[in-house]
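Database export, one record per block. Field names are fixed; values are copied verbatim from the stored entry.
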Amino acid sequence: MGEDGWRALEDIARKRGLTRAEAARQAISETAERERRRSGLAAEVAGLADDPDDRAERGRVMADMDAIAAEWPE
């Protein structure tokens, strides 16, 4: 870890009232949780993209939006 990383870790530890080791553990845990959520969201998006009912609904919504788009003033 470079000097910037150490400074960031010190800052986190100080703000949270933790040791550097505990701050590092928390940061790792929080990062892992964000990655899990991101992966889950990506899987959900991929599933919806493959869902024929969802694709049809998206098409209807887009058609509705196109139909009213001309009515918006520029």
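Remark 1: The mean pLDDT is 89.
Remark 2: The helical segments are 3-16, 20-50, 52-69.
End of record.
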